[in-house]
């Protein structure tokens, strides 16, 4: 390999690594999961992947404030009660210095003593 070609390849690799390692991005890739050790009905976690760590998490219920029986704690959402009154869409708004992204999950719990509610 010629010296010029080797030099050009080294510059290309430097620029590629610099772009991959240093690019600051909004939290574009994310999801809401059940954290390890949690039960699906009791707790959810908002996970966002971005090069600049999230600075805030805002949880909403169907676009509004959270109902009684639900408590946000940073990237986690805790359900204090297990009943169908808390069914619906929950969203997590994640923000970092470069932007905001929103992820949603629909929660559906069937009350064990409710014989009229079948899936």
TrEMBL record:
Domain Ig-like residues, every copy: 27-110
Annotated signal sequence range: 1-22
Claim: Iron is one of the keywords in the record: no
Keywords attached to this entry: Signal
Protein's UniProt keywords contain Protein biosynthesis: no
InterPro entries hit by this protein: Ig-like_dom, Ig-like_dom_sf, Ig-like_fold
Gene3D superfamilies: Immunoglobulins
Name of the protein: Cell adhesion molecule 4-like isoform X1
């Amino acid at each position: 390999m010629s010296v010029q070609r080797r030099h050009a390849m080294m510059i290309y690799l430097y620029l590629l690594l610099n772009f991959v390692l240093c690019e600051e991005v909004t939290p574009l890739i994310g999801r809401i999961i059940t954290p390890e050790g949690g039960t699906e009905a009791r707790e959810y976690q908002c996970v966002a992947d971005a090069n600049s760590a999230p600075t805030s998490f805002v949880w909403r219920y169907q676009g509004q404030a959270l109902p009684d029986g639900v408590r946000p704690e940073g990237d986690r959402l805790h359900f204090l009660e297990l009943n169908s009154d808390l069914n619906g869409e929950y969203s997590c708004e994640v923000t970092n210095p470069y932007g905001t992204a929103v992820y949603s999950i629909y929660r559906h719990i069937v009350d064990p003593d409710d014989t009229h509610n079948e899936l």
